[in-house]
Amino acid sequence: HPAFDVHAVRRDFPVLQERVNGRQLVWFDNAATTHKPQSVIDRISYFYAHENSNIHRAAHELAARATDAYEGARQHVQRFINAPDVNEVIFVRGTTEAINLVAKSWGAQHVGEGDEIIVSNLEHHANIVPWQQLAAAKGARLRVIPVDDTGQVLLDEYQKLLNDRTKIVAVTQVSNALGTVVPVKEIVALAKRAGATTLVDGAQSVSHMRVDVQDLGADFFVFSGHKVFGPTGIGVVWGKRAVLEDMPPWQGGGNMIADVTFEKTVFQPIPNKFEAGTGNIADAVGLGAAIDYVNRVGIENIARYEHELLVYGMRHLGAIRGVRLIGTADDKASVMSFVLARYSTEEVGKALNEEGIAVRTGHHCAQPILRRFGVETTVRPSLAFYNTFDEIDRLVAVVQRLAGQRRAG
Ligand code: PMP
Question: Which cofactors (predicted)?
């Protein structure tokens, strides 16, 4: 394979040249959002300079360009996740909206009183709250797959939860708080055997590993553009054609109709049925450019390099006296959550920021999993392929200095 050149890819990301508190920025907040290569920034401004129009409706040149750009982006997404059919790709605002779409549309139709919805203890609030709301509205029950002390889901316990009341199993592929890579393929296969529908939250996986929705076998796969080097405000619901075709629209308006009278509306086929109103055209096009970029670097190159960085970071952080790593599963991606004895996580985050190092501190919108480990917050450095071993050394040096300043007597 061609050698991965981190210094070459870094030149593609203008923001990495920023200086913060006199130091070159270290961006270790990739689980919150990723930076954008120049090609994505350029693609969005090219759209507004040369192609800007609403799509589908008007019969003029710019409408044709905008429609081609938008539908081209849909094809990029299709190939990126190996979806069998381009019309199974629905553009939404992000993962949160994607899960709400499924919960509101599919959920309203299929979940009833006494039914059960399974999520894991690792979920982001975006994959908890919509299901909780659905369960409350329908008199259904939310059930939770527990994790072991490394932060990996317990498949045996999961199997015990499955029964003929299980309507949907919704799990994350990678935990945003701990970095655990969840065996979603096995989880989906077991759910199917129980007759349940499945949703995989790919918000934290698509930027770190090859995703093939046909191989995964789930009914729905969702992700956000901004976590895969694309713009904010654009995301994807992929669903199996038959499942999507059977679902009612969740929002009504323009673009999603075939015919409207005051008596009755006939809806468009998928994907338009789920894309009411003017969509985020420019940012969909930007997401297409981000996928192009990832393809050029090569997702396997990304996965391999990031794994080396993660192993190095976990080893050096974990060796600091007073550091407790949270999330130590064998299979992990990107995230190195930890707490430091005698420091609040905010103090650690502030000290890192003073050195130009950006990490997230807090509950990471995943309170249940942090509480499972007896903490309310962690410090969460999270890696992307533009990070370097030197940057990890800078992080480790700051944490080491802090640890040395407040040793137990
Ligand atoms: N699920 C996971 C696993 C996430 O990490 C995130 C974002 N932190 C979301 C869902 C929600 O994504 P968004 O805020 O882009 O809608």
Answer: pyridoxal 5'-phosphate
